[in-house]
């Protein structure tokens, strides 16, 4: 298997040899094999391990196991303990989804901070069939059946062409140790059902099932690309941009066939999912509208009008990366610097290591407090506003920058002490409000 | 369920009320329920039952069961006993495929002969998921995942929107009797595995699995239509028709992306299935060619040349219907007549009931014999040629018409006695060689 892995790297990821890769290692068989293969391929690596603190001692034992393995390899090691349950409860997510959000936000944060070019995760071919069948059971379109991408921004999945059987055999041959995750979360449960009960029967139906499936999925993925290209061409004809909104002639939509699939494809990028509603809109009276979480689509005589939903006071602008620029609702430049430069009300310097993603920009909420820079202890934002003699309109137009739920900056007014640069700081971010 | 069935007929098959439908009834629960529903809907019906003689007494008991049920309903009844095993052995097919060929050929034959407008078969929603998973295990493209068509020429499938659970419930409520097919053929075996072991788990994963799946399949079917339309447009641009062949500029093929899926879609109607071979042809030297069972695709400098494979001496031209016209390799008009009209060497009259599909036109094979019209007993074709003083080129250019493996006509020379019109004949076909 190593030879095939090496061929894959040479063909699909030739840059890996000169660039830096962060591998996500849970301690399970897949990621331990990935680590072994990438190490053997002599790549420039570091390892990240998420401790989701979901299984008490077992989680901690995994953390120690990975840490010790990585020490043997002598790679840089990052570990983070996440309060997954409380994050999930707070966000109204199931545990799996919460863990995924936390994991990828942290990986991207590490990659930004330490200049990793790639983040390698250990998905393999059997994950594709499992995802395919889960999506099939929930209902999906061709996109949901077209597989897991090999590359997606910084994320790479070099085990994707290999089956679980190949990975297991490689682990055995190379005496690779791993920890079996005992978790029985709903997602694991579903995947185990598919793995143990459905896939073996499909393999009975056709001994070459997995390969046939993978080829089928490549066909679907190609077909989906063909459709996407056609839909883009169609958009360039039908979507007329005008003053920050888009006008679409209803008559030209009506002649599309099959209509509902065209409507789905044309509007999915604007977060619309219900083609029926859009279908009804074609024949509705002027003034009728349907909404996605980000957009409004309304009927105006012979046109549909597509526009972003105007801001509401309680809107949060969420940034999942330590990005160069925050552009909505205000413009903040975020740059890495080696030392503190000029200081003014529109600039702060923070310790990048102390920030947690996502960064959020929003208005003030009742109950908000922060640790004003240069002071000991915390202060309610409402008290700060009062002390600073803010008028009501001033309060309502004041933007606040947060790191997860902690205030980093009453923007343009006062920074927070908790994120301040200290003698121990190794990575400084300069955040500057642009006029 | 009857109300939904009636709505479906009104919406999708409104012509059924004034036209004639032949229902295929095996005696199993699905076809017995279909018969009950179509009877209750007051349609103009007749029933066909295939006895595939695969399960001895059980097969015969089913035949009698269906015959008696149909007698109660007072519908016209057709039954045919097929030597399925020997047909399968002869054609090198598995039993299921052989039975399917025989069944549909006979249904179409009956429909032509007795002027049925539709042939109703009892496929239902669960058949769709089974077919989907079988095709998935064997490898397929989007077409193989897009479902079973509701209409296909004369075949209609009015149970397709209904689930097995609905059909079973309807049979119970209406005290419908049926015969359980004990057969354990490979196809049944596969379908049973899927039915009993895979689908229940998928239903555990999502209680609304079947509906979600059906909706997904409709999406795939729509997507497939979008691609088909685009490929037709592409063909109208790229495929240049010239003197019975098609020229396709190689450069314009090469820029297509994703290439292999475009190549597959562009050439599938010409029976090419291996896009890799076609892909290699794009860069091959002039003169290289690849073949499907019907077509040759060759490289000629900057073009691919697509043409029908020229006739070989052993080519058989197969006609699956009692069609109006046979056009290859010679032109035979086939028309229904009520009595024998003019007679000449280029015209014969046959008893349509005695013909079996497929009709075949081919050259003479060593060992062929027939029953010359007006004679008692059979004669070797080679002996006939000798007696008629055929030259070698005359033997080699002589075409013969067969009904399955029986000679109907040494075309333009002598008819066969076995298919001759007799006083009992109720349906006469006139077959006339066009110059």
Question: What is the strand and helix layout of this fold?
Answer:
The structure is a homodimer of 435-residue chains.
Chain A: H1 2-12, E1 20-24, H2 29-40, E2 44-51, H3 56-73, E3 76-81, H4 84-91, H5 95-114, E4 118-120, H6 125-138, H7 142-145, E5 151-152, E6 155-156, H8 164-173, H9 186-205, H10 209-238, E7 240-242, E8 245-249, H11 250-254, H12 259-267, H13 275-282, E9 289-291, E10 295-300, E11 303-308, E12 317-319, E13 325-326, E14 332-337, E15 347-351, E16 359-363, E17 369-370, E18 379-380, H14 381-387, H15 392-397, E19 399-403, E20 406-410, E21 414-415, E22 428-433
Parallel strand pairs in A: 1-2, 1-4, 2-3, 4-6
Antiparallel strand pairs in A: 5-6, 7-8, 8-11, 9-10, 10-11, 12-16, 13-14, 14-22, 15-22, 16-19, 17-18, 19-20, 20-21
Helix pairs in contact in A: 2-8, 4-5, 6-9, 12-13
Your description of this structure?
- Two copies of one chain form a homodimer.
- Chain A has 435 residues and is α+β, with helices and mostly antiparallel strands.
- Chain A has three domains: 2-213, 3-Layer(aba) Sandwich (Rossmann fold), CATH 3.40.50; 239-308, Uridine Diphospho-n-acetylenolpyruvylglucosamine Reductase, domain 3; 317-433, 3-Layer(bba) Sandwich (Phenylalanyl-tRNA Synthetase, Chain B, domain 3), CATH 3.50.40.10.
- Chain A has 15 helices and 22 strands.
- In chain A, the strands form five sheets. Chain A has a six-stranded mixed sheet, with helices on both faces. Chain A has a five-stranded antiparallel sheet with strand order 7-8-11-10-9. Chain A has a five-stranded antiparallel sheet with strand order 12-16-19-20-21.
- In chain A, α2 (29-40) packs across α8 and α6 crosses α9.
- The longest helix of chain A is centred in the middle third of the chain and has 30 residues, at 209-238.
- The termini of chain A are far apart.
- The model of chain A has no long low-confidence stretch (mean pLDDT 89).
- Chains A and B meet through α6, α7, α9, α10 and α12 of A and α6, α7, α9, α10 and α12 of B.
- Chains A, B: InterPro entries: Lysidine-tRNA-synth_C, Rossmann-like_a/b/a_fold, TilS/TtcA_N, tRNA_Ile_lys_synt, tRNA_Ile_lys_synt_N.
- Chains A, B: This is tRNA(Ile)-lysidine synthase.
- Chains A, B: It catalyses: cytidine(34) in tRNA(Ile2) + L-lysine + ATP = lysidine(34) in tRNA(Ile2) + AMP + diphosphate + H(+).
């Amino acid at each position: 298997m190593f030879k095939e892995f090496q061929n894959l790297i040479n063909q699909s990821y030739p840059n890996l040899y000169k660039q830096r890769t962060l591998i996500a290692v849970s301690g399970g068989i897949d990621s331990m094999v990935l680590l072994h293969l990438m190490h053997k391929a002599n790549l420039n690596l570091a390892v990240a391990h998420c401790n989701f603190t979901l299984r008490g001692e077992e989680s901690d034992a995994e953390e120690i196991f990975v840490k010790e393995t990585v020490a043997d390899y002598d790679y840089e090691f990052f570990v983070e303990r996440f309060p997954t349950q409380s994050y999930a409860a707070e966000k109204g997510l199931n545990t799996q989804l919460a863990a995924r959000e936390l994991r990828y936000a942290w990986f991207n944060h590490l990659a930004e901070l330490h200049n990793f070019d790639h983040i390698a995760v250990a998905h393999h071919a059997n994950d594709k069939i499992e995802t395919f069948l889960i999506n099939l059971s929930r209902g999906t379109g061709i996109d949901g059946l077209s597989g897991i991408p090999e590359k997606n921004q910084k994320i790479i999945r070099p085990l994707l062409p290999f089956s679980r059987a190949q990975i297991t055999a490689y682990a055995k041959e190379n005496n690779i140790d791993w920890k079996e995750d005992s978790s029985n979360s709903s997602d694991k449960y579903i995947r185990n059902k598919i793995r143990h009960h459905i896939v073996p029967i499909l393999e009975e139906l056709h001994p070459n099932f997995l390969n046939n499936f993978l080829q089928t999925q490549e066909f679907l993925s190609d077909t989906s690309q063909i459709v996407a290209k056609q839909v883009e061409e169609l958009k360039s004809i039908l979507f007329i941009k005008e003053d920050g909104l888009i006008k679409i002639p209803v008559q030209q939509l009506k002649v599309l066939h099959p209509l509902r699939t065209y409507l789905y494809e044309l509007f999915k990028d604007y977060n619309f999912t219900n083609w029926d509603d859009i279908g009804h809109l074609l024949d509705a009276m002027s003034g009728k509208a349907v909404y996605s979480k980000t957009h409004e689509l309304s009927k105006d005589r012979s046109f549909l009008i597509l526009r972003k939903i105007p801001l509401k006071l309680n809107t949060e602008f969420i940034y999942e990366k330590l990005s160069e620029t925050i552009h909505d609702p205000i413009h903040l430049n975020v740059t890495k610097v080696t030392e503190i430069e000029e200081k003014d009300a529109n600039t702060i310097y923070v310790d990048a290591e102390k920030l947690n993603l996502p960064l959020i920009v929003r208005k003030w909420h009742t109950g908000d407090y922060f640790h004003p820079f240069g002071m000991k202890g915390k202060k309610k934002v409402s008290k700060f506003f009062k002390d600073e003699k803010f008028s009501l309109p001033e309060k309502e137009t004041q933007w606040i920058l947060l790191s997860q739920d902690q205030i980093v900056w009453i923007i343009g007014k006062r920074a927070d002490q908790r994120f301040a640069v200290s003698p121990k700081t190794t990575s400084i971010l300069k955040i500057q409000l642009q006029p």
